[in-house]
Amino acid sequence: MELRGPDLGSRAGKQNLGLWAATARRAAPYLVLTTLLIFTGAFLLGYVAFRGSCQACGDDVLVVSEDINYEPGPDSHQGTLYWSDLQAMFLRFLGEGRLEDTIRQTSLRKRVAGSAGMAALAQDIRVALLGQKLDHVWMDTHYVGLQFPDPAHPNTLHWVEAAGKLGEPLQLEDHDVYCPYSATGNATGELVYAHYGRPEDLQDLRAQGVEPAGRLLLVRLGEISFAQKVASAQDFGARGVLIYPDSADFSQDPHKLGLSSHRAVYGHVHLGTGDPYTPGFPSFNQTQFPPVQSSGLPNIPAQPISADIASLLLRKLQGPVAPQEWQGHLPVSPYRLGPGPGLHLGVNNHRVSTPISNIFGCIEGRSEPDHYVVIGAQRDAWGPGAAKSAVGTAILLELVRTFSSMVSNGFRPRRSLLFISWDGGDFGSVGSTEWLEGYLSVLHLKAVVYVSLDNAVLGDDKFQAKTSPLLISLIENILKQVDSPNHSGQTLYEQVMFNNHSWDAEVIQPLPMDSSAYSFTAFAGVPAVEFSFMEDGQAYPFLHTKDDTYENLHRVLRGRLPAVAQAVAQLAGQLLIRLSHDHLLPLDFGRYGDVVLKHIGSLNEFSGDLKARGLTLQWVYSARGDYIRAAEKLRKEIYSSEESDERLMRMYNVRIMRVEFYFLSQYVSPADSPFRHIFLGHGDHTLDALLDHVRLLRSHGSGDPRAASSGVAPGLGFQESRFRRQLALLTWTLQGAANALSGDVWNIDNNF
Predict the structure, then answer these.
(1) Is 10 among the domain residues?
(2) Which of 28, 98, 233, 242 has the fewest CB atoms nearer than 10 Å to its CB?
């Protein structure tokens, strides 16, 4: 039997072939259409994936995409590391540390700047860094002028008798407590109570008929820094200042620890940062210094006193009763404004040329090693300094150890990580400012961000971030990935949102001058942030006192110190990973448009007053519009670019990382006005100074009290020539920022 296939030559076979051919011709268009749809869908999916990986393109919260990959180092045997891999690796190694023990041990060591104990601690930290997998470890030494009390001639406070002779002394409980950089010498005058010593407080004092000029002022701790209190007193003609802690400014909960009534609080009074005897110059040993001093050094003496001494003084005051909001909780009722009996203050502090040492450790970046993400912590402390510097030092060392372990397991950042232990912080960020002054020409081109670990744990009720606007969106994103240390099952973001739906109003604060991060932004033009966990509504009572011990900090946090310190380390570490390894820097350069808009809203109130004088703010409005357009244009360029194009990404990163620097006024001298930032700085070139000046259009008599803080002597009114100069300085700095953000000169399109 023979098996045969179909007879293709038959009529039936030919008919079947014809049917198949006709069907194929009819189906062809549908096949082509289906193919096109599949291709288009794949393209759109790829495009959306790219959108998710663009770290600076979002309008609000930056998105962390699993598509962001991290290539391992050349000596690694691992494959590609994704964000989730890095996050898990970081948390695993961080969990192996011993933060609490390091905090305890550091707080037990004597470490006043320039002391033998500080030198020993510096060497121990250097050895610890050398034991990690870092590419570079080094120290630099600065020779700075620090002020110390004179043990042979302690500071004194005496009553003055009616005949003008010195009377009975008021015994200062601890002669080690003083105000570094106070003017030395003697001051005699009647005593006046001036609340917190703010310009508006002194103006209110005058309005009550009590003149601060020619008198000694008694002011409370809080609201503004020691330096600002003394500067305001000097502006109003006072002869000296006594600063005391009032129990009304601390927790009233009887179950919480409070500051002893015989403790005074330490604080420097230099209205600035760094070595005030070499303003604008780095204090290296070979530097030939010009014979100048910082304009922020006061000309009047200042001294901290305890609540007990303050009570004795307040009982002697006469005159009007202080306003209700000025009343405190000392055993004196009511507080009066004065004047009171005469007092004689003698301050005998002396200046000492002191070597201080900063310690550095570096992990070099793989793709952009010349761009640095910097994290630092103050190491020195006037007293035990558990909260002031021991916590920050412990977290810094733990992060060094953690990132070193990550490097050993395949991690290599795109940008360099720079870890720094600062000296001289208690004297006004001296170590960090001198380093900035020494390397400013390099750092403003290479430093991406500074993260400060100072004052990181002062409580556990609420979280604050004092920061540049460029970092707000990134901070929000990281908060959503860090667990709350005291609210189980919640992230930090959920914790802050629980009581306030406007999270940034609850969390974000501007950088104050007494923060170590301030100089990075206001002086060097580098975006910076300082994190703090705090008590709700009340200050940590032991900061800058001899009671800032590990035991007291542990009790204030009710045993949660390790958990809170761990949360800070997680927050800072994940911030470092994002900043050092995202292809595109996650800095929200559009935020400054909102900052300008907020200030302009305040200026708009005075448009009619200015117009009546033939003046206008139109140029500021135009410059702000140009900045907004430049930011939006750059955002669109990034949006449509290829993340894999390394050259293009680096070009964008350079423009983004220098945005903060663009807001340093190029029209004032760094030697005369070191804090040149128009939003954060200090001086006539700032937006706040312009606003304070414009307010004088509606003031009467002695003028606006805030004008003193802007560099205007109290009593002067609105000056058209000064207004025009301020407007020009501000407008062209803002316009310059818009032009720089636009990129190349042929891409600039503005309304001027």
Answers:
(1) no
(2) 28
